[in-house]
Amino acid sequence: MDQTVQTDTPDDTPSFGAGHTNSTDLRRIRSNPDFWYPVAWSKELKAGKTIGTRYAGTPIALVRPTEGTVFALEDRCAHRQVPLSKGKVCGQSVQCCYHGWAYGRSGRCIDVPYLGKGKLPNGVRTFPCREQDGLIFIFPGDPDKADTVPLPPRLARVGDPAYKTRFFGQEVKCHYSFMHENLMDMNHQFMHMKQMGQMRPRFLGQKREPGLVEAQYSFARTSGKQPLGEALIFGERRDSSEKFQHRDVMTIRTEYPYQTLRIQTGDEDPVMDLWIVYVPQDAEELTNRTFGLLSVKRPKVPGVLELAWPFLVAFTERIFAEDREIVELEQNAWRELGGDHNVEVFPVINALRALLAECGVSEPAVNA
Amino acid sequence: MDQTVQTDTPDDTPSFGAGHTNSTDLRRIRSNPDFWYPVAWSKELKAGKTIGTRYAGTPIALVRPTEGTVFALEDRCAHRQVPLSKGKVCGQSVQCCYHGWAYGRSGRCIDVPYLGKGKLPNGVRTFPCREQDGLIFIFPGDPDKADTVPLPPRLARVGDPAYKTRFFGQEVKCHYSFMHENLMDMNHQFMHMKQMGQMRPRFLGQKREPGLVEAQYSFARTSGKQPLGEALIFGERRDSSEKFQHRDVMTIRTEYPYQTLRIQTGDEDPVMDLWIVYVPQDAEELTNRTFGLLSVKRPKVPGVLELAWPFLVAFTERIFAEDREIVELEQNAWRELGGDHNVEVFPVINALRALLAECGVSEPAVNA
Amino acid sequence: MDQTVQTDTPDDTPSFGAGHTNSTDLRRIRSNPDFWYPVAWSKELKAGKTIGTRYAGTPIALVRPTEGTVFALEDRCAHRQVPLSKGKVCGQSVQCCYHGWAYGRSGRCIDVPYLGKGKLPNGVRTFPCREQDGLIFIFPGDPDKADTVPLPPRLARVGDPAYKTRFFGQEVKCHYSFMHENLMDMNHQFMHMKQMGQMRPRFLGQKREPGLVEAQYSFARTSGKQPLGEALIFGERRDSSEKFQHRDVMTIRTEYPYQTLRIQTGDEDPVMDLWIVYVPQDAEELTNRTFGLLSVKRPKVPGVLELAWPFLVAFTERIFAEDREIVELEQNAWRELGGDHNVEVFPVINALRALLAECGVSEPAVNA
């Protein structure tokens, strides 16, 4: 069988060399704020402290009182707009570092030390806030929708004793859409050849549902040995001579705005389960902070995964560094060319691009 | 008596949460050039040398001939606009480093080494220039007004043997108005709690005259011990148990474009006398260079102040570092929000804002 | 005889103080792409490798197969615009590092690893490319003109055993026109006084032909000793007492877009022969990369030049550092003033400015 990917239907035939003639540039599509976005790791925010974080140009102060749940305020004092996250947590309120104005959980100003209580000014905006699986999420959009939009029920396999989970991430200087495309197009495995050896992906098919695009692949090693880091993730060594080629299936799904990648054999539990999201940082959304949870199934021999963990960490860091470099180069090219000139020939990526454009927001950013 | 500050009259009632609805943004008001501004410390400019400095985007070459007073030229050669301050001082002239064009005290071009004397091109702009109390001042506005606009008669207590004076300053990345507001609103003492302990300011009243706003405060220590650095400035230790609370009066005055802060008890000479000015650097005036003179009264025991001086320097540096951080954060917020969103509730600060808007210039910068 | 330069004719009388009233600003004139420009040193590009370089904002991938000549492609993969110069050279093609798309010498896409051969997308732009005297040239303009526009027949004296040649250069943050003016106006020798002692240039005359401006000078040392570095270049020591003053003639020529400087005595071979070009890097052409070849005639005693070479290198580096600083200050002034305010009084420089404006392109840059 020919292993080259064929477009699914004649309708999918790309118009080569013409570039996208869409009226909207995908890299100008803003993320839809009516979803839950992680803005910090739980461990970043100690009890009785506040930290500053961002979503799409909006500064956010996260506050963890010594008692009670985390809450989130716009990170600008109503008085002179300096960050509340530079302030002090007092009970269920945070006090601005500059002149001591204090705000409660509801965002209301509850004290100005040098002003009568009857004259208190208005407060600051708040954001619905939840904490789950080691992440602090906010709901930056319409607060009335927060209760009806669910958080993902489970992030990777956090909390499952059969798995060990790595928390990772960093700021990447590109639009979030480049990240989704990078992960879903497994033909980019070519780029990781030095890390992973020559692997040939076979595209098995795609699925498109409202809010969702999914791609499935199998792999065949065409030369070289499987590296240790990869072996740890995939659960066993396989050589190019083996008959087990193409046994494992990799499923990559963008379920807006999150992305997952699972590797599994038949109906068994996945050997690897990744949950990842790319949270826009600046108002133009041309940088993102990545929050990733990578769960690896524990082998039968206890302790092996713990021993090998540093190798797995180093391996994934190298892969991620290569991905970061290339997506930032894509963003640079976009800036220089003044827009998106991609000529995409892979149908699942065109489906993904359509999904991101439909689910996102095409109006300009407030502060852009 | 209630120590919270009440607005003076019903007319002063702030409109909370609405922000300023002025047609002009205070951070876009340019400094009035028809005043004397320091642009360098005297000690920065050695005899026979020239240095480059700035006022509001205009580069200025200060020249100190080996004989005679300092003079000031626009710091761009008429030929190819390179800085004259890179050149050589020859007698009463400065010679451009590039092709040797020479300019006299009047700004006239007096020599082009490869051109006949009859064909000399026009020269460069000059600025009235004076030197006083360790500072070099220029008059950047209409030169005809320079003689009628007085320099401050005395900067702090420079030259008074009863005082020791510290010269300090640096570049701060904000509009000068943030600096004036920072110093005059003593409620920001809250921010210096780590340095100064818990002090509660009591606002005693304000004065408004043409070109002038003044605020008076007394202080009560509400907890903690007086730090050494502060004791040196205030002249003696006072604890919260003492009856002397609120005995000292702090007077902060903006007498456009300068600012002073004095601490005194009754009619005695002040224990501290500060003179400070914030000179815009760039054409948009969103950075300033601060020139401050802080005079501290010598205690009766000779030599004590000299011994303690390093502590006083370190103390004031820490205070100034905190102030600089917060005003730069204000400027950042202004940039991100695209304008001033301050909701000021303190009447004296609103008076100060009105003063700075009235005395300044609202036209756009020449090179902006 | 008066050594000051007189303007040649009354028509040349400059209008002092008025600045240029040309409708076009010389610093906005783009370089004419219909010439051969060096974009890399030969030694930068190893066999079987590719490197990324630039001309006026256009990224260029140079590819040197293990067999055959260098070729040049636009440095953006047709797929996702990432640099091909990050890719792999395979035979006579280069393969993009991201998803493995491959391009041949003609720029045609010859392989997409996951796509049928019948469906290959369009390729990338190519540039005529030649290699000569240690430099790799491209022809960024109309490819049809490449064959009729000659490369300079010889760069300085590369390959001539009677000379030793230094290859030098770096990025300079200014428009290329500042570089031409700097070198041609030898009155700027004033700036190098510390390096070269007091030398007085005498302007001997100028020549203007289509595409060419030439200036000739002689020099007299007015004080100080000749430094070693200079003596090496000029071939012998001369003191101010000597009768040989003004014996050597320096000829500086801009033959668009290149520049040369030769020093010779009578009809003898030049003691020094410099070829230099300033290649715009960014789309606005406000930075350039300088490629210079400096050939120095070998003295009669063999080995002397090799021994002294490090001194010559250090001497020319200091000169070049001074030049770079001043032209970057000129560019800064241009930015601050929002345009060119030069008041040029030297006729040959005005002729040079006219040449650069005529030969260049006044339309705006594509990506500006």
TrEMBL record, chains A, B, C:
Database matches in Gene3D superfamilies: Naphthalene 1,2-dioxygenase Alpha Subunit, Chain A, domain 1, Rieske [2Fe-2S] iron-sulphur domain
Residues in Rieske domain copies: 36-138
The keyword Secreted is annotated on this UniProt entry: no
Residue ranges of the region described as Disordered: 1-25
Keyword Oxidoreductase part of the UniProt annotation: yes
Keywords, ordered alphabetically: 2Fe-2S, Dioxygenase, Iron, Iron-sulfur, Metal-binding, Oxidoreductase
Composition skew (Low complexity), residue ranges: 1-14
Origin superkingdom: Bacteria
Protein name, UniProt field: 3-chlorobenzoate-3,4-dioxygenase
Record organism: Acetobacter orleanensis
